[in-house]
Amino acid sequence: MTNSETSSAQRAYDVAKDQILSGGVRGGQLLSEVEMAAQLGISRTPVHEAFLRLAAEDLLELLPRRGAVVVPISAHDATDVLEMRLALETAAVRRLCRSAEAVDTLFTELTALIALQREDASAGDVHRFAAADDAFHRRIVDVAGNAIAQRFYCSISERQRRMMSDAARSESTRLAALIDEHDELAAAIGARDLARFESALLLHLEATYRVTIG
After folding, report:
1. 69 forms bridges with which residues in the sheet?
2. Is 68 strand, coil or helix?
3. For residue 172, what pLDDT is reported?
4. pLDDT at 171
5. I want to staple 12 with a disulfide (CB 3.0 to 4.6 A). Which of 45, 50, 91, 135 is the partner?
6. pLDDT, tens digit, for every residue of 145-177?
7. What is the largest CA-CA distance in the chain?
8. How far apart are CA 189 and CA 104, in angstroms?
9. What is the pLDDT at residue 66?
10. What are phi and psi of 204, to 5 degrees?
């Protein structure tokens, strides 16, 4: 491809991937190369290249002469993500509970992120809400300071974002419930109560899992 086509392919990739991860297009929906090319004002060639990349990431299944279907989140993938998040975030809070200063700092940051989520929920902005949700959970792991855990958490962040977005779009009441669950998680951290945090996190993750998988 020419430099221009390479740039266009990257743009098509970014747009399509954001639509998938944000829940703008759901599992089982068809993405058309023709429609995306028209939307972005580019030829079909770079869009096809973008779709090939997304298929390699198991986000799309290519259909000859039709475009591509968004691959649904499987129950197996959702379970894997739930188990890893539970392990990583609980380990992070276990480490954080050793430092009252770290806990106080994190509690303040999480409270601010919850306030942002309330604003996004009021505005009905699921995209921004999902970003704040990701920031909330990622901050727990980051502040704990385990570099290996941080890298691993990043590796599952896209699956996590997609699951949360799907859950939020599936049930209009889920945004308010997520905020309440985040309030409980932050309160458990502020109290340095690991058992309370782990119990609340499991309920939080399982609720998202049930909505996502149906």
Report:
1. 30, 61
2. strand
3. 64
4. 65
5. 50
6. 999 999 999 989 888 888 888 777 776 678 889
7. 60
8. 9
9. 76
10. -60, -50
Number of residues assigned to the chain: 214
Give the CA count within 13 Å in the CB-facing half-sphere of 204. 25
SS3 67: strand
Residues 6+ apart with CB under 8 A from 105: 143
pLDDT for residue 210:
79
Please name the residues in contact with 165: beta carbons below 8 A apart, sequence gap of 6 or more.
21, 22, 23, 126, 127, 130
| Cα 69–chain centre separation | 20
Closest by CA to 144, choosing from 190, 186, 90, 187, is: 90
Our CA dihedral for 29, 214, 156, 99, rounded to 10 degrees, sits at: 150
Structure tokens at 119: 């604003």
Residues of the chain with pLDDT under 50: none
What domains can you pick out in the chain, each with its CATH number?
3-70 (1.10.10.10), 75-213 (1.20.120.530)
Per-residue pLDDT tens over the stretch 87-104: 999 999 999 999 999 999
Report helix angle 157-170 to 126-144, nearest 10.
Answer: 140
Closest residue by Cα to residue 178 from 106, 96, 169: 169
- Measured CA distances, 202 to 83, 97, 118, 126, 162 (Å): 9, 18, 22, 23, 18
- The three-state secondary structure class of 214 is coil
End-to-end, the C-alpha distance of the chain in Å comes to 42
Is residue 157 within 8 A of residue 134, CB to CB? The reply is yes
